[in-house]
Amino acid sequence: MPELPEVETIARSLRPQLVGRTILDSDVCWSRTIATPSARKFKQLIKGQKIVTVSRRAKFLSVQLSNLYLLIHLRMSGDLYIKEEDALLEKHDRLILWLSSQGKRKQHKLIFNDTRKFGRVWLTADPDEVLGNLGPEPLSDEFTPRWLYESLQTRHRQLKPLLLDQSFLAGLGNIYTDESLHRARLHPLAESDSVSEKQAEALWEAIRAVLNEGIRRNGASIDWVYRGGEFQNYFRVYDRDGEPCPVCGTTIQKLVVGQRGTHICPNCQVME
Question: What CATH class is the domain 145-264?
């Protein structure tokens, strides 16, 4: 599933191509792609909406329109393409937004393609109806070492499942959680309220460093449809079980934590 760096990369790539264009019409090829409103209402409301900006919140793409918000969650296999208006429909295209021309650009269409049909699209006047329960952004000013330490202390949960909980911290998934915990030298099964203030600061630094590097390398391309990133070439532990740890040379192990495949160095990440 695309995580924060992948979705941020997609938002940055789409922004200059979409901002200022008007959505002329839409084709809903699979109605369940539209989470809200109904597919019929969606077609009525989206027509004529101008795209004001394209951004990201957690793992959601957020497209601000004239007076509505279009929110897209790619889930396991969703992807977005901009193609010329006469491009042929493909098997797994679920939603098509027909776009106005802009300057010298031809008329195009924005296509949401989703092989596994897990992705969802919302059209709403109030984005908080969808995003309101999310935790802070890990690259925002709100996310501080002190906030992280105090928030860890008020919960008694294993570290990895807690970091994956989007209501606790928004945007982390399996890859960037494993990479952050390794960088911070914390075991994914450690209890959150056992983390010291110094360890919390190290985790804060690790999360921000890993996410920033992921964004700088346009995300990771590994086991989904997401295209173009190269962060997978710089993984420390994720998907490297049986290989040496880049820090100490110990063989990386794969565990199952909260039903998720989890990669650790048993020497760098010792359970205390």
Answer: mainly alpha
Name the active-site residue from 56, 57, 59, 217.
Answer: 59
Catalytic residue among 105, 137, 260, 266: 260
- Across the chain, which has 272 residues, the per-10-residue mean pLDDT values are 92 96 96 97 98 98 98 92 90 96 77 95 98 98 98 98 98 97 98 98 98 95 69 96 98 94 97 82
pLDDT at residue number 5? 96
Question: 4-131 adopts what CATH topology?
Answer: N-terminal domain of MutM-like DNA repair proteins (3.20.190)
- Annotation marks residue 3 as catalytic: yes
pLDDT value, residue 104: 57
Q: Which of 2, 136, 161, 188 is catalytic?
A: 2
Indicate if 59 belongs to the active site: yes
Is residue 85 flagged as an active site residue?
no
Cα(105)–Cα(120) distance, rounded to whole angstroms? 28
Q: What is the DSSP string of 102-166?
A: -TTPPPEEEEEEETTS--EEEEES-THHHHTT----TTSTT--HHHHHHHHHT--SBHHHHHH-T
Retrieve residue 139's tokens.
């690259």
In the chain, list all ranges with CATH 1.10.8.50.
Answer: 145-264
Whether residue 260 lies in the annotated active site:
yes
Q: What is the pLDDT of residue 10?
A: 94
